[in-house]
Amino acid sequence: MTVVTRFPPSPTGSLHIGSARTALFNWLYARHHAGQFILRIEDTDRKRSTKEAVESIFDGLTWLGLDWDGDATFQSQKIERHAAVALDLLDRGMAYKCYCTPEELEAMRAKARAEGKPVFYDRRWRDRNPDDAPQDIPFVVRIKMPLDGETTIQDQVQGDVTIANEQLDDFIILRADGTPTYMLSVVVDDHDGGVNHVIRGDDHLNNAFRQLQLYRAAGWSIPEYAHIPLIHGADGQKLSKRHGATSVQEYRREGFLPEALLNYLLRLGWSHGDDEVISTDQAVSWFDLDTVGRAPARFDLEKLESLNAHYLREGGSQTVIDGVIACLREKHGIIVDTTGRQRIELALPHLAQRAKTLIELSATAVFLIQAPSFPLVERKAQKILVNGGIEVLRNIQDSLVEINAWNPDTLEATLRARAEELELGFGKIAQPLRAALCGSTASPGIFDVLVILDRDESLARLQRAVEQE
RNA sequence: GACCCCUUCGUCUAGUGGCCUAGGACAUCGCCCUUUCACGGCGAAAACACGGGUUCGAGUCCCGUAGGGGUCACCA
User: Fold this and answer.
1) Is the terminal CB of chain A with fewer CB neighbours within 10 Å at N or C?
2) Active site residue A97
């Protein structure tokens, strides 16, 4: 049997980080078993669904590299099929018409709540004679749930979970306006789509019992279930806006790499021994449901950052360079030319050790493109120059100008020799030089900077630093 | 409130009855490296929620308590 998993987001906002993890687990499971991963947009809530949200979901998944098989489907296009299933259930006596008004239902719920009983519909129309039915009043269709006994779900993550059937109410499958409800639509779509593994957040665990009965009523085979724990914010509460970024796009904008986000999300609730850095390929071959934990995990930005820093260092690819260039343009208004790009390529291995995100990385790359202007804006750096730094620079300028073999070794030999002649600690030379070339007190190693900037640019910057009053 | 789920360092986790004096990672602290900031290396501090069982032996199994979470729509 081919494994078929699905990711069914409702397009009411941009791709949520928690949804992304659900998508990842489904994707991984399908890929691991050489199965299919399908994407279904659950847009039956017309009022809240937007086109932008659909785009955001496609965009987010694509960015993460979570590719789906076939075209995405839209639930709203299947409502006739869903309604037909409901009517069929009605014909076969598995469901019935209910004429209660919303007000009646609310009163019912209030009463149940007050009595400490399960809050639900009291089935008053379940066995009522159809002849009693009021004419010309809209009805909803409710499914008949078993009245006694119990139902157990064999969940791949949660284990066997059993519930008393009296906890299950005759929920609505077809609204008064003839449209299907979510509970019906998912089941029909999953069945029609051949979905045989349902991996989703454990906020759906309770729904599984209801859906299971629907499968039975329809006479369809029941999928394997795996309810994975939710991600919580740092305070242990459900992850929401007030915890900062919640959409994958926001993480992208803040300079995170997709592989870092994927790796982080994967480790939230899933483990493979002591492994921490796991590539997507490894994840595909290792992933399985039995190593998914059952406790909710808190989102820890610092760990994500550390993973991101790792991928920034290891990656060193063209994508990272493109990312830096894009950041430079967006955040600093800097357009990078060919020379600039070359410098960034040369500097990347050095810069990457000093950044946790693309944003930070690009901030440290600014000096490569934009020469510092004097006096320096960074106060500490300017202080170094003013407090004797310029004198030191004047003293080493000639030695630098004389160097033709502009490479790290020669540069180092020359500058260290000069430091000794001047009886200065090497830092006394390096820091003013750094301030002059980078406009900052922190940068890659000074010889690397000299080489990356190249001879002409380095000497020009040095000259300008020396000339200032 | 009812029902369901969960509980190992601050956080993510390893652990499937003896290999646990409880391991790793992030964060924290210290030392080393050093031209700055980093990276890196070494080291430290830091956890089995509590109470009962079962067992020769429990972080691992069972029960209870406490705490946390989720669900209770003509939303998905």
Assistant:
1) C
2) no
